[in-house]
Amino acid sequence: MSTFPRRAKPLRGGFVMVDPDTGRPQKTIPFQYNPDTLTRTLQPQGIGNEPGDRLEVLRLKGPPHETYKFDAEFDASDLADGADLPADGLYPVLSAIEVSMYPSVPQLWEEYDLATKGTLEIAPVESPLTVLVLGPRRVLPVRITDFSVTEEEFDQALAPVRAKASIGVRVLTVDDLGYTHKGGLLYLAYQGQKERMAAPVDSGLGTLGVSSI
Question: From which domain of life does this come (predicted)?
Answer without folding.
Answer: Bacteria
